[in-house]
Amino acid sequence: MSDLAIKVVVAGVLAAHGIGHTIGWMPALGMTRIAGASGDSWLLTGLAGDQAARLAAAALFVVPTVGFVAAAAGLMLGQPWWRPVAAGSAAISLVAIGLYPHALPTGPLAGAVTVDVATLVLLLLAGWPSVATVGA
Questions:
Q1: Which ranges of the chain have pLDDT less than 70?
Q2: Main-chain phi, psi angles of 134, to 5 degrees
Q3: Integer Cα distance of 84 and 50 in angstroms
Q4: ∠ CA 103-84-76 to the nearest 5 degrees?
Q5: Fewest CB atoms within 10 A around its CB: which of 18, 30, 68, 109?
Q6: What is the pLDDT of residue 87?
Q7: Side-chain half-sphere CA neighbours of 59 within 13 A
Q8: Distance, CA of 25 to CA of 74 (rounded, Å)
Q9: CB burial class (10 A; 0-12, 13-18, 19+) of residue 47?
Q10: Nearest alpha carbon to residue 41 among 113, 88, 101, 117
C-alpha cells in the first residue's frame, strides 16, 4: 500500500470514528432515539441526576466527535498535532464509554472500544504510522 493510501485510510478511519460518536451525544440531548442506547450513567445519574448526567454524556461524547475529525483533517494537512489530538480523543472516548456503557448499542460499542484501543496502541506504543509514511 502506498504512503498516500495509508494516510487516506488512517484519516478516513479517524473521521468515521469521530462521526460515529454522534450516537453518544445526540440521544443524550434528546435529538434522536437509538434502539439499544441510553444516556444513563452507572455512576453519574445517581450522583448528579438525570439531566446533569445527560449533559455530561453529551460533553464527553462531543469531544471525541470533534477531536477525531480534527485529527483526520490535521493528518491530511500534514500537521504534527494530529497524533496527540487522536490519542486524547481515544482516551476521552474510553472514559465516556466507561461511564456510559449503554450510550451505544452493542455493535458500535465494541467497534468504538476497538478503534480507541487500536489508536492508543498504534500511536503511543508502536509509533505507527511513521512520520516518514504520512508526513506528519
A1: none
A2: -105, -5
A3: 32
A4: 95
A5: 30
A6: 98
A7: 6
A8: 23
A9: exposed
A10: 101
Length in residues, the chain: 136
Kindly report the CA angle at 61 between 55 and 65, in degrees rounded to 5? 135
C-alpha cell at 72: 483526520
| Grid cell of 37 as nine digits | 442506547
- Cell of residue 62, nine digits: 462531543
Helix pair angle (82-99, 106-120), 10° resolution: 140
In 3-state terms, what secondary structure has residue 7? helix
Q: Which three cell numbers stand for residue 24?
A: 453518544
Residue type at position 123 = L
Residue 85 corresponds to which amino acid? V
